[in-house]
Every structure is written in structure tokens, then in C-alpha cells.
Amino acid sequence: MTPLTVAIIGRPNVGKSTLFNRLAGRRLAIVHDRPGVTRDRRFAEGRLGDMPLRIVDTAGLEEAPADALETRMRQQTERALAEADVALMLIDARMGITPMDAHFAQVLRVSPTPVILIANKCEGGAAQAGLYEAFGLGLGDPVPLSAEHGEGLAGLYEALLPHEAALKERQAAEGLGAEADGAADADADLSGEDLEARAAAGADDDADEEPVDPGRPLNLAIVGRPNTGKSTLVNRLIGDDRLLTGPEAGVTRDAITVDWVHKGRPVRLVDTAGMRRKGRVVESLEKLSVADTLNAIRMAEVVVLMMDADMVLDRQDLTIARLVVEEGRALVLAVNKWDAAADRTATMQRLRDRMETSMAQVRGIPYVTLSALKGRNLDRLMDTVLETHAIWNRRVSTGRLNRWLSAMTGEHPPPMGKHGRRLRLRYMTQAKARPPTFAVFCSRPEDLPDSYTRYLVNGLREAFGFEGVPVRLFLRKSENPYAKR
Length: 485
Description:
The structure is a single chain. By secondary structure, the protein is of the alpha/beta class. It has three domains: 4-174, P-loop containing nucleotide triphosphate hydrolases (Rossmann fold), CATH 3.40.50.300; 192-208 and 396-477, GMP Synthetase, Chain A, domain 3 (2-Layer Sandwich), CATH 3.30.300; 218-392, Rossmann fold. It contains 13 helices and 15 strands. The strands form three sheets. The protein has a six-stranded mixed beta sheet, sandwiched between helices. Strands 8-9-7-10-11-12 form a six-stranded mixed beta sheet, with helices on both faces. β14 (437-442), α13 and β15 form a beta-alpha-beta unit. It is elongated, with a radius of gyration of 27 Å. It starts with a strand and ends in an 8-residue tail after the last strand. GO terms for molecular function: GTP binding.
């Protein structure tokens, strides 16, 4: 059965995101004392007791001029209300009913979507007066609740039961069945003994290409400095004004996930807040937004770094790119606003120069020029993302790796160690993919210089097509076969 879709609405700073996180069972939305933190709709799967829920966090309802950011935020909230099975209107019981609460309650009374009135922040006796005032809004009996402390959730469960029953009846009439969720397989690290045994055997026990499950969503994060067109790109890709956009810098604050299908392939797009230089991030709210972006990078498989065509790979872009590589994610550079670039030749030259000098540790990072606003080159961007993702998932058989290692050490033998004896690289294997990670077993790994490790990594890129993705190579000491005898 499709879960009950619940939209959480209300004026700013009444605790909508706190309730969203409570029902989701984890901190997904940013919670801050400043009003108006949430701007986009955020979806999450949650549960209240044995009742599965699809929860929607929304921006605060505010009256504003037609061209204001608050008006665009309200339009997102109105869409969430129209798509929901039931809406939870929150009020702050400690503050009582405000004129804004009364105004929007009047709007909700004529809405076709059922509404449950929630009197939030009801912990303690200070909220009793506000709770009694809520009866006058004409939205039925209010449910007293404290989202922060988790009190009153049983009352919310009872209020949602009739709406869940109505949803089941509608789905039964429409003949909808339950859908099974596919479980995603994760790469697992092998133990050192297993790796050495596999490497020493030297057999072709692994396929040269690890097939990517076409039913498994590709986690794609869009990152970059503020106002580079990240949200505009996501909206263009999915063909809907799903995310809030505008000329103002820093419109996006939360990392918003959008499920999408590209040419039959499920994609989980994550739009993130813009990342400024660390020294300029002083407000606590912006620090929370940056932390949300960093978490999105860690959870991603491929990261698209959006850049302005007139400011490609500046200092902050390079900082973000290095962070993505250090996290082991596949990286694609997107040069946005290409249609408005002042000097395209100079831009491309600067891009290549900065990649060669500042990103030499990951050679061959792919880049695409595009215009998110006009929808140009978006298919090429997604083709590049899928190609890079396939490389990031690639595996090489142990037999091929050991033959390659023998040729590499034969062409350029390892240097002498500290004790005057030449180092021996005995065998190697691929420990995991995502990113490609290799283990080389040698006599004295601590004596092998970094320059020789880079020689091996560069050789892996050229020989097995790992251009443009992070490659990790670990040196491990071989076990003495006679030590235990």
C-alpha cells in the first residue's frame, strides 16, 4: 500500500521541521530558532507506530508581494497541500493564536485536503491557554503535541487513523497493490587474510566489469558555490519547478532529495546549499546548511560540481572538488551559464590549466559546458554522469592485475629499501569498487616511496581505464609463510 502522504504546514517557526524529523526518525531537515529556515518542500519516509507515512516538510505560510521570495515559497507549500492526503496545520500553543494563524486557517477550511490541527509546544502549563484558543479556528479539535520532546504522538496517531482507512479504501477501489522495495547491495571490505589469499592465487576470479543494477537509484548530488544554478539544473532535469529558484544567492538551505527516472534509470537527485569559503561562514544557520551539503556528498555516488562560466575552478571550487575526491566520490564538472560566457576560449584554457596543476591527483575529470536555464547540453551531462558512475563501479580481475604488476615492476623496479635490499611487490588484488581500491602486498611497505605509489596509480588509470575517478592503493605487508611453523 502507498503510505499516507502528510503535509506539515503552518506559519514560520512553529516547529514544522522538528515534527518532520520526529516522524522521519532522524534529523533530515535543518532546525533553527530563526523563522523561515525551510524554503523548499522536503519529502521523507517515516512511521508513527505501525503506520507508514510519506511526510512533506514545507515553508512557512506568509503573505508577501507577488515577486518576493516568500511568495515563491508559499507556492511550493500550496503544491504540497494539493498533493497530500492530509495536512497537519501547526500552531505554537505557547504564543497562542496569531492573526496569521487565523488567516491561513480560513484558507485551509475551504481546501479539499483534510486538515488536522496540531497545537505544538504543549509541554508544560504555559501552553494551556493557546490550546483552548485553537478550538476557535474552526478546524476541529486540536491535537496537543510536543514535537521536540515526542509527547502527544499517540493522539496524532488516533487522528490519522481515519485518513489511513480512507486511503486504503481508495486504493482497494483502484486495484493498487503493494510494491516491494529493492534492497541495495553495498560493497564490503574483505579481511586482510582473504585479500592476500585471493591476490596470491592470481586467478581470474572477478569480472572485468561489475554490472550496475539498473533498478538501483544512482545517488547524484549537485554542489557548488551559491548562485551557480544548482536548483535550476535540477528543475530542468526533472521538467518541473520542484525546487525554489531565484536571483537571490543562497535560496537553498536544506539538501533536498528528488527521485527521478532518466531513460529508464532511477536517479536520486540531491540539490544542496551553496558552499562559501570557510572563513566567510559565521552564522550558525549557514554552518548547518554546509554540514547538510557535506553529508550529501558523503552519501552520493556521483557529484556534479556546478561552476559559473566566468569563474571556473576558483579557490572555493577547488576546495569543493578536493573534498569530493577525498570522500572517494566520482566527480563531474559542469560549467554553467555557457551561453553567457564572456570569453569561451579563455574559460576552457583556464579550466584545463587549473585541472592539470591543482587536480593532478585525479587525472581526466570529465567536464561539460551547459546552460541550466535554457536546458542546453543536459543529456550530455547525464551521459557523462552515467559513464563516470560505470568507471567508479569497475572491477579488474586479480589475474590481470598481477600480470600488470609484474610488467610495471619489470619496467621500473622498486627502489632499494633502507637496509640496502630491494623492495619486492609480490602480488595485488582489488579490495573493492566505489571507489576502485587496490591492495598491494610487499616485503616492506613502509619503505616504498610515495613517488612509486603514484607511478602505480597512474599506471592503473592508463591500463584499466580509471581516468577521472579516485583510485586508492594500499600497501600491506606480506605474511611470512614460515612464521607459524
